[in-house]
């Protein structure tokens, strides 16, 4: 299957999925220079926004011209003859996709190297701080409060409260903010967590400094604030080992 067909299939799936985000009631209002008076106005805007946010932007295709994109959609919906042949459109889209992906990969690799260097410099200084311990893998941790219960094995489930931050202090995830502890198998999370939480006893609270290679490495969660090879900081409170369902 060629790239053009993949693009069309992805767009069709996007269009179908976009209806899940549009309510049955019309929401009148104005967003920027766009006036959304009727339900179909909101539906149309939602489709366009989600196409950009969920399909084009994640693929690095951010320099497309919205007015011409809209013109192409309009021509297709109205069965107007295309200004390019199907073969030519397929070739152009495939070429553009490859170029966009290459640019994204180069940008990701450059940022990943910068993040790795920044993390190394941080960890080198951090390990000299009072109370910070370092494991053989390079994981750093500090005991904030000791516990008295059992310690988990890698195959156990754990119930924890936690907060994750970047080196600049930005909070990217927090069960405290949600007021909802998380429960998960310890062998289904990043390596730094699998190793670190096993050092804890039930009731303990530790602070972990996780090198990029023990976090998400070159494959961070898409669309989030965590970049490739970023060193992450977690405060983790082990509430329970193998909690009852």
Q: SSE layout and pairings?
A:
Elements: H1 3-18, E1 29-31, E2 34-36, H2 39-56, H3 66-77, H4 86-126, E3 132-134, E4 140-145, E5 157-165, E6 171-174, H5 175-178, E7 182-185, H6 191-197, E8 205-210, E9 232-241
Antiparallel strand pairs: 1-2, 3-4, 4-8, 5-6, 5-7, 5-9, 8-9
Helix pairs in contact: 1-2, 1-4
Polypeptide structure, described:
The chain is an alpha+beta fold and 245 residues long. The chain is 40% helix and 20% strand. The protein contains 6 helices and 9 strands. It has helices at residues 3-18, 39-56, 66-77, 86-126, 175-178, 191-197, and strands at residues 29-31, 34-36, 132-134, 140-145, 157-165, 171-174, 182-185, 205-210, 232-241. The strands form 2 sheets. Strands 3, 4, 5, 6, 7, 8 and 9 form a 7-stranded antiparallel beta sheet that branches. A two-stranded antiparallel ribbon has the order 1-2. β1 and β2 form a beta hairpin. α1 (3-18) crosses α2 and α1 (3-18) packs across α4. It is elongated, with a radius of gyration of 24 Å.
Report the total helices.
6
- Beta-strand level of the residues, as a percent range? 15-25%
Number of strands: 9
How would you state the average pLDDT, rounded?
87
**DSSP helix fraction:** 40-55%
What is the straight-line distance between the termini? 45 Å
Provide the succession of SSEs.
HEEHHHEEEEHEHEE
Structural class: alpha+beta
List unreliable stretches of 5+ residues: 1-31
Major sheet, described briefly? 7 strands, antiparallel
What Rg, in angstroms, do the CA atoms define?
A: 24 Å
General form = elongated
